[in-house]
Amino acid sequence: MRTFSDQADRVARFAGALREFGVVDGERVGILSHNSDKYLEALLSVPWANGVVNPVNYRWSPAEIIYSLKESETEILLVDDTFAPVVSELRQGYEGLRVVVYMGDGPPPLEDAVGYEDLIAKTAPLADSVRGGDALAGLFYTGGTTGFPKGVMLSHANILISAFGSQASCPFVVPSGRTLHVAPMFHLADLAMWVAQLMLGGAHVVLPNFDPPAVMAAIDEHRVTNVVLVPSMVQMLVDHPELARFDLSSVRYIVYGAEPITEVLLRRAMSAFPQADFVQCYGMTELAPMATMLSGEDHRQGTRLRSAGRVVAHAEVRVVDQEGNEVPPGTIGEIVVRGGHVMLGYWHKPEATASALWDGWMHTGDGGYMDDDGYLFVADRIKDVIISGGENVYAAEVENAVAKHPAVAACAVVGVPDDRWGERVHAIVVVKPGAQKPTEEQIREHCKGLIAGYKSPRSVEFVDVLPISGTGKIDKRQLSEPYWADSPRNR
């Protein structure tokens, strides 16, 4: 446990060490590590030294990590015990990696590495560089689910505008509360929670990664008030057989997002945490990350649980057609956003930046619609729309129907090639433990009672577990790739 005073001293000392390593205006500093107190300190130390943080997705392969380090010209890398063994391979693939800082507690297990704690012990504190405003704060690489990762450039103003505007629009952290960090710290969702709790004061409880028993024990022991989870994490918590053994009554806010959640799962989670406000956040890395929020009150009313909520105070959101014209309420189009939280652009990718940021708006690539009361409903990624027999089918709608089958624990829907229909709706299903496995026809007929027949799955497969991407989402690319590998329309 550390006080704010303790942390401030350590941050200033590590910033001094970074300055001695040559961190000047805008030098990138990478962090390849599971969640830790040192990670949070580094997020403060890098801008304190006038640098730019590059949180590395630790779920990537070494080749992908090397690519991101090369592209961002990151020459200083912080690693923990888990990732120290890959440093040799990273050095072989990227000769520009000149400084490696070992974030463990003991002596560095690597040649040519320096110890984080040693640096703090021997380095004098550095005066804050007061980096802020429109200066680049960090490079946050996209998860890669729609192509090769791109470095999203976010300024300090981007991040703070999003945090202030979101908390003002829909409170999601408790002043002087306690935030539990279990989502990866390289992800903007966790960073947003961290910044909001810093603004309002309070404590940070850190777990290296998501583990249901450890999460429940931490909430119980430390009286956690706020936590951010992706739907797959929510599902693992509410399904855990020991859920009732822990006192989870301290939780005031459960923030979720990153992928659609089914109504069935959401209602189960709300029953498991009756004292908590559930807050859904829709956004993306490029928006630092908030665009809309569905409040706790909206959840309690229960009439718009499939909505992503209303626009936050710092943003403008529209739904437009292919020409950029706003469409009427209830009409599906592309979701576009503008405001002071929108990214500066993609690192070294002017063409990608121009295609995303045009006519003054960030084009999200997400399909959705607004209702008459200004609530946004997200349908699906536009380029992942399943076009079957000339009809557009949005996977989120089908997933919501499949999940209502009493034997279904989790599901994902993708488009796969079909000789007759071009693409067919294909469901991948995880059956609840102890439940009788339904047949493909039973899943199909169940869905036809909830959605149009052409939207119902034409094929179903059953798996033990759904793959998770580097950002904690269900990896639909991995699920669909085997079907498209030999197709002339291979995407």
TrEMBL record:
What GO MF annotations does this protein's record show? ligase activity
Assigned keywords, A-Z: Ligase
Q: Where is the AMP-binding enzyme C-terminal domain?
A: 397-473
Q: Name one Pfam family in it.
A: AMP-binding
Q: Which Gene3D superfamilies match?
A: 3.30.300.30, N-terminal domain of ligase-like
TM region(s), chain numbering: none
- The AMP-dependent synthetase/ligase domain extends over 3-347
**Record-given protein name:** Acyl-CoA synthetase (AMP-forming)/AMP-acid ligase II
Organism, per UniProt? Answer: Streptomyces rapamycinicus
